[in-house]
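User: Um, any thoughts?
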Amino acid sequence: MLLSLAAVIVGLALLVWSADRFVEGASATAHNLGVSTLIIGITIIGFGTSAPEILISIISVLEGTPDLAIGNAIGSNIANIGLILGVTALILPLGIASSLIRREYPILMAATLLLAWLLWDRQLNTFDGLLLIGALLLGMGYLIWYSLGDQGDAIEAELEQEIPRMSTGRALAWTLVGLLLLIASSKMLVWGAVNIATALGISELVIGLTIVALGTSLPELAASIAGVRKGEPDLVIGNVIGSNLFNTLAVIGVPALMTDFAVAPQAVDRDLPIMFGLTLLLMLLSFLPPGCCRIGRFKGLLLLGGFVSYQLLLYYLYTQGQLA
């Protein structure tokens, strides 16, 4: 048990560190090659923030624990909206000036509805995976097309400050090192998480929803708090929406491409509606009342309250022996 716990802690720490190095290296490489800042933000940074979840999902499915992958994706989305945006908005209200970010909201909502439809039969297969990855490519393609015709978007200056400046050789080296360590740390984390679930007598789904999801989201919380202190609210919201988009379509879609597997009924009946509800709540709070594109402190408190209520629900079910 102690060894498994150590594997989870070390795996999470290494996972976060290597993901940062991967994003920095890949972003700097693309910048040096002349790729536009907005496209780097939409593709590389968007993918990089979900790279830990994607690799955890792949390894989980390969090792026969797909529920960990599903729990990780759903739990990360719930934590991103409820915990990260909730806490960040309490510290400093988040204004939404970027038109690109405003166009990501309906894409995320559509992706969430697509996932809910595909999970309705509690099965995922190759065709479902193709639909999810196809939807991701279509959404990314639209955002790239829009960004090419909308130069000077509010988020562009914020992204420009976040892309590190380094030589192409060094950037490529960090990209490779980050990717290799991502794979190793993901495997370590999955091994430890599965052992802990077995020892505690709870499912891999719950471990994915809690320990793994929270562990991969806490560094994003720290980065978001730093972002608002630097006056980068659009980047904070954009990172969350982009990460949730990749979690919804890629983190679940890639494993489905690899193999068919059953989805735990609890994930569909209990956890997916919470994720859908928080996603819808975020969209409504961001644009209501009409003409208001802002997540203030009261709205942040509502989002955080949703996250805390969900955690209390899981704890209550655990104490009643009903958590699965």
Remarks:
- The domain at 48-155+195-319 is CATH 1.20.1420.30 (A middle domain of Talin 1).
- The longest strand covers residues 94-95.
- The chain has a mean pLDDT of 82.
